[in-house]
Each structure stands twice: as structure tokens, then as C-alpha cells.
Design goal:
By secondary structure, this protein is mainly alpha-helical. It has 4 helices and no strands. The protein has one domain: Four Helix Bundle (Hemerythrin (Met), subunit A), CATH 1.20.120. The chain is 67% helix and 0% strand. It is elongated, with a radius of gyration of 16 Å. Bound molecules: fe (ii) ion (2 copies).
């Protein structure tokens, strides 16, 4: 199984995304190391977090009219549906299938982060107001970004 692991190669230099991605890696690692008895609960935590994670990225793309949004949003939706199927499998006791899915998710996440999310991060860093990033994300930075 491919065990998820944080690596600086996943950093996108956009803290609102990097922070969420670190949390995702932590939660997926917990699920991958969970015994059967707690795997359904650990997988549910991954799914809940992913709803927030993808929802936030989708929001940024819509609010800033990101040109490559459609493909990215569709990919989120497809993956989230798969993860929800995984939750049903975990609750039905099909732990091997869920563990296999977790390994595939780890591989997918690295690829997605380094391609579609990297493009979104680049776009968000160029947004004058951070494109809807959480207000606390840019401490003390009140300088106007006139030059993009
Ligand atoms: Fe992401
Ligand atoms: Fe994404």
C-alpha cells in the first residue's frame, strides 16, 4: 500500500491551501494506520475534511473566475463520490477495499496537488485580495498589490 507522507514537494507557497493539505495528509495517515475497529471513523474524518477542502477550493475558483475551474471542480466531485463509497464499504466491513482506496488516494493526492492545485495556488497568489482567502492568512499585510 502507498502510505501517504508529507513532503515539501507538496508545498504550493499559498498557506491557506498548504495548511489544509497538511491536515489532509495527517488524517489520511491516521486512516492508513488505523486498525479495522476504528477505520470507519478514521475514514469518515477524511471524508468530512475533504468536503471542506474541496469546497473551499471550488469556492475560490468560482469567486475569482479561474479559467481552469471546470476540470478541477469535476475532479473534486468524482473523487469525493469515490471516498463516500469508501465510507459505505468501511461501514459494511470491507476493510481491504478501503485500505486499497486509501493507497490510491495518497497517489492521487500528490498528483492533484502538484498539477491542478499548483495552478490554482499560482492564480490565488496573483489575486489582489487573496481571492477570498481567510482573512487571518496574511498577517499584517495591508500593502496593495498593484503589480501582478
Ligand atoms: Fe487541494
Ligand atoms: Fe484541488
Amino acid at each position: 500500500m502507498n502510505i501517504v507522507e508529507w513532503s515539501d514537494a507538496l508545498l504550493l507557497d499559498f498557506e491557506p491551501m498548504d495548511g489544509v493539505h497538511r491536515e489532509f495528509v495527517d488524517l489520511l495517515a491516521l486512516a492508513q494506520s488505523a486498525p479495522d475497529a476504528t477505520l470507519p471513523q478514521a475514514w469518515a474524518a477524511v471524508v468530512d475534511h475533504t468536503v471542506e477542502h474541496f469546497g473551499r477550493e471550488d469556492d475560490w475558483m468560482r469567486k475569482t473566475r479561474f479559467s481552469a475551474a471546470e476540470n478541477h471542480i469535476i475532479q473534486h466531485r468524482v473523487v469525493l463520490n469515490v471516498l463516500r463509497e469508501g465510507l459505505a464499504m468501511a461501514r459494511a466491513g470491507q476493510m481491504d477495499a478501503v485500505r486499497e482506496m486509501a493507497g490510491e488516494l495518497a497517489v492521487w493526492f500528490a498528483k492533484h496537488t502538484q498539477s491542478l492545485d499548483a495552478a490554482l495556488a499560482l492564480h490565488m497568489r496573483r489575486e489582489p485580495a487573496g481571492g477570498g482567502a481567510p482573512r487571518h492568512a496574511r498577517g499584517g499585510g495591508t500593502t496593495a498589490h498593484a503589480h501582478l
